[in-house]
From TrEMBL:
Gene3D superfamilies: Phosphorylase Kinase, domain 1, Transferase(Phosphotransferase) domain 1. Transmembrane segments: none annotated. This is cAMP-dependent protein kinase catalytic subunit alpha. SMART domains: S_TKc. One of its GO terms (molecular function) is ATP binding. Signal peptide: none annotated. Keywords: ATP-binding, Kinase, Nucleotide-binding, Serine/threonine-protein kinase, Transferase. Belongs to the protein kinase superfamily. AGC Ser/Thr protein kinase family. cAMP subfamily. The keyword RNA-binding does not apply. ATP binds at residue 84. It holds the Pfam family Pkinase. One of its GO terms (cellular component) is cytosol.
Amino acid sequence: MADLPSQGIDLVWMMPGKNSGGRGVAVKEFLAKAKEDFLKKWESPSQNTASLDQFDRIKTLGTGSFGRVMLVKHKDTGNHYAMKILDKQKVVKLKQIEHPLNEKRILQAINFPFFTELEYSFKVVKLKQIEHTLNEKRILQAVNFPFLVKLEYSFKVLNSDTSPRNLIVLTFEYLHSLDLIYRDLKPENLLIDQQGYIEVTDFGFAKRVKGRTWTLCGTPEYLAPEIILSKGYNKAVDWWALGVLIYEMAAGYPPFFADQPIQIYEKIVSGKVRFPSHSSSDLKDLLRNLLQVDLTKRFGNLKNGVNDVCVEAPFIPKCKGPGDTSNFDDYEEEEIRVSITEKCAKEFAEF
């Protein structure tokens, strides 16, 4: 996790709504330098910065359609990492090559306090997998974000400048300044470090877009209307997704849900939101402006940018130290399958 002071900008100074006049100047300078650094790495991405035999695999932290994320330990340094292992053949079969290539290229180029950092990446010639090794003493001292959702719903914690919502707002401000759309905000992709700060993970659907894009991707409950209607969309879809997340944090369930995706899409496109009885007027007002079908009225997409979006509270999880996985679910461990020859070499030549 990047250190805020070393980047020349104070956390409180960065917060939307704090010293808004001075913040504008400071953040403008910060984002300009950040974009310069990003573009250098974006144009010259790193390749094969480690090898599999440098790590001891400890435990599976999560599984997905193309592979799994494992807790690993570097044999020489003793540092713990989260290693994302992808099956190249599955990725190619499902025609999803663009996503891991985008994710790796983006992760190696971004540098912001509230993202997991890509420490290593490599392809294994004798295996059918590719690996992302995400550095984080912090990520491995984290809990899954759904745990925070339950706590906020139960305890109704008070407003705070260092809240999960505000940190997500800052991450979007940073990403959007680089012409990056995240496109996959949901509780499962958010972690909390041992100091209570949010970290955004999983950039598989992230994409660099200067205008509009038309790809249908993301979690059904979190899709913006313009994605569903195939009208072409831009960064504003991330602000819609933030509205869905805030609603779910407050209510314990998303604003648009049904048994079938098509039913979910119909509800989303209608733009009609029903609020829980305990919702405050401020919360309703914020959500109406984030879950706004009209892009010219959607918060985050307006002249005031992130300053239109208000905030909520932090949570500090219990953590025993580096390598503690007690806040993650248990998964059945599997051996990494060995292949005699390299698979899908052409498709992953740029990885």
